[in-house]
Structures are given as C-alpha cells and as structure tokens.
Amino acid sequence: MRRAVVTVLLLWALVLITQAAPAADDLVITLNHGRLRGGYVTVKGTERRLKKYLSIPYAQPPVGSLRLAAPQAVEPWEGERDSTHQPPMCVQDAEIVVNFSKTILMEFTPPGVSEDCLYLNVYTPAEASRGDKLPVLVWIHGGGLVMGAASQFDGAPLAAYENMVVVLIQYRLGILGFFSTGDEHAVGNWGFLDQLAALKWVQENIDAFGGDPQMVTLAGESAGGISASILILSPQAEGLFHRAIFQSGVATLGTYTTRTPLHFAQIVANLSGCDQSSTEQMTRCIRGKSQEEIIATTKKMTIFLGAVVDGVFLTDTAGELLKKKEVLKVPVMMGITNHEFGWLLPKSFAPPGWENGMKKTTNYLFFFVLFQVSMANGLITDEYLKNAKTPEEIRDGFTEILGDLVMTLPVVTVAGYHSDAGVPVYVYEFVYQPEVLKQSRPSFVKADHADDVGVMFGACFWDDHVKIIGIITEEDIKVCRTMMAYWANFARNGSPNGPGLVSWPQYERQKQEYMELGQAQTVKKKLRKDRVHFVTVTLPQKLEQLHTAP
C-alpha cells in the first residue's frame, strides 16, 4: 500500500513539473526535410512568449556549380538541426551594414559573410500549432540589392502583439544575385528566384509553425519593396502570396528591370579583370572568382544590377507589365516617408559638408549624374529651387528633388496602375520622427528613408540580438502599436482597417486618398500633388517645346 501511495505521489509531482515548465521537445518542429530545434523569446512589454527558429535552409547552398544558377531544393538532413543562431549574411561589404546600423542607432553585431546564405528566420507565438491558420508576413530586407540580412530585424514583437507568424528571408546579393549576360550562359534574376524559392518553402512548411499558407503577405522596404513589386509581376509567383506591401520602393524605380543586361555584365567583367570576348568567357570567369574578389569588385561598382526580362520570370519590363495590367491580382499597400533623401541616403554619396548647405552651381550636377536624369536637369532644378536663396534652402530643395523623382513619383504611378487593375490599393506617407532619431540627426531632417520600418516592426520593443540605442518614449510606443496594427490587419484581411484605428480609405485615381501616418493618422488627398503634376504634365510639355523650338 505504501509503495502504491509513493508511486501516485511521484506521478503527481511529475505532472506538476511538466505543467510548470514547457518540455524541451516543445521547441522541436518537424518539417518536410527534417527536424529543427528553436528557442524561446519573451517580448518586452508583454509576457507573451514566442518561439524563434533561425537559419532554416530553404535551398541548397548556391556554391560551386550552383553559383550563378537557379536555387535548388534543400536536401533532407538527419537528426535535429540547431536553429538558435543567426545565419551568415550573403556575400557583401559588411562594413556598410555596420555603418548603416550606427546611423540608425541600432545595436547590432553582424554575423559573418558567406556564399552559403540561403536561410530564413521564423517567429511564431509559443502556443501556435498546426491548423491555427495565423496570418503570415514574409519580409524581404532592403539594401539596394547589394547589402542587408535577415538578422537586421527582430520579428518577435510583431508576432507577439499581433498574433501572427513573421518570416525573414535572405537572398543572393550584388554580382552573385543579379549578374546576367542576357543569354543562356547567365540568365540572371538569381536573387529574385531565391525569393520565390523562400515563398515556395513557406507554402510547403509554414503550417507547421501555425501559419496559414493561404494568408501570406509579401512585404519589403527599399530594395525589398522593389523586390516585392517585381515579384507581383512574375507569373512564377502565382499563388505564393496573397497580399503585398511596398515600402519606399517599387518595380519601376531606376534601372531595376532591363531588357539589355549585357552592358552591365561587361562593366562587372571589366572591374573583375575578366575576358569580355564572349558571354561564356565572362560567366566562367565570374564563377571562378573567390568570395574576397567578388566583394572587392562590389566595392568598385557604381551601377545597380536588378531584374532581367527573360521571358519566364519576367515577360516584359515592369512599366510595360503594369500598363498592360499583367499583375497578380492581390491587395497592395505602398508608401513613402516624407523625407526619403533627408539623411541616410545622401550620407552615402553626397559631397562632404552637404548637410551644412549646398551651392546650386557646383553640386546639382553631382546629384543628377548619379541618378541620370539627363536633359531635364535644368528644368527640374529651376522648379524646385526657384525660391531657394540660401545654401540651406538649396540643400533642402535637392533632397526634395531626389525624394520625389526616385521615390514619390514611382510610388504614385504604381499605385495608379494597381488600382486600374481592379485590386484594393492603400497608400501612405510616413511623417513620424522617433525622439531618439531626432536627437541624433540635423534638425532639417524629417521622416527619413527606412524610418517607417522600425516602427512597423515594433522596434520600440526590440530587446534581443538587435536593440535601439536610446530612450523610447510613450509616444514612440503608441505610434509603434498603431503601425503594427495597420500592417497586421492588412496581412490578416487585405485591408489595414480594424477596431480603434482611423479608417484608411482605398486609393483610386480620382480621389487619390492616402493615409498620413504620424502622431495622429490623417486621411489626405493627392500625395505631393503639385510636384507630381509638374513631373508628369508640365515637364513633358516644356521638354516638347524645347525639342520643337527652331
């Protein structure tokens, strides 16, 4: 009898222990290709716990014969794979990432750089399980298609506060991601094909994390926004995502889609010391370069490599596909900050001392040569600087020129095309300045490029491998929660609207209503109306007059 009582007591104690602490096996998840062991994380401001699974392979390492080739399906592995460490960054100049982090006051130690980099990170509520069908947000990092990593972000706050699954992906960058000769020797689009492979992985595996493969939102900022905007034009992306968000970047920006990549390939080959006598020779030479040589060439490049019209991934340029309404019919949300070229971007290329003021005659050519705005330079400068008298006013005018031509106008144009295609479109302008950034930048800077990213990710709650350096105010937290809610609602319903939020109307060509996101949220009409009218109507008329003048 005594033995029976002892046995019962031991069993009861075991039950209590099991209930008090989650079993380690709760962190093991079984996917199609093998098992992963993740880790727990608690988000600041909430007691809710999450599971995070880092460095999940979604394709084979693109090395050796797979360099400059389409990604191949990941191979199965035996046993448990440790998914508690950040993946290596794809091949890039890591110093840029370090400097970027310092500029935006982010505490972040970049992992190493490796060609073996096709990994993704998943954040999901701790209690989530198969069949829960939570909304999924897949994030493509920015960085001009030459830099960036999944580890620059923490998806935990968004997943915790908004009860969703967040996936952060990596893709090949620069030469290894986008080198193309325009023929069979190097078709190109490797980085975009990586993104497609990651989305296919999500379709096949996200249910294991509690996510709904039929409720996937593809989102990105800057080059990530451009990527998402390009993928929505690809027939190969059909069914892989169901909403899309473009933040400060769309497919029509610059030369990010081209029919004729050979010229760019020749520039890369020349900088790499490769024989340019044939596309086969160029490709073989680039394939044979070491990682260090690839990075050295990258540092010398002044061109951007992007998407190629190959007849499969892209059947035409972005502009033409949008005009023909050949887009995936999914709801889209897109927007800009109100000072896209206020600080972060000019710091990387503007002449020394630009922030103290500029001289119209000496500095405007530098900007326009960089962005290749050709014969319209004088007319554009006259319009934007007509009232500028001081060096500071000239500086402010040039930051406006670049922001409008490179970001605002393309976003407004693409929003109109998607609206014409008959899908729900939501447009925003982000105007909020977190207090910590205000104190670290000149007073003339407003909401800068990428300022919206930390807010929608809930960076005010980051407290893991990335942190914001400085004091987070109550107002910062309030705006964070509002942005997170809008983004999560869009991921969940295809509309940002929800209880307790200012109603955000759909964008359409007549009213052109958009949401101004700041301390308050305000519905406005016709984003940068006068500037858009000048560039789209007045400028072409003036150029035509110049062409026809005797």
From TrEMBL:
First-tier enzyme category under EC: hydrolase
GO molecular function, one term: hydrolase activity
Carboxylesterase type B domain segment(s): 26-534
Keywords: Disulfide bond, Hydrolase, Signal
Domain of life from the UniProt record: Eukaryota
Stored Pfam families: COesterase
Signal in keyword set: yes
PANTHER family in UniProt: CARBOXYLESTERASE
Protein name per Swiss-Prot or TrEMBL: Carboxylic ester hydrolase
Source organism: Gouania willdenowi (Blunt-snouted clingfish)
Gene (UniProt): ces3
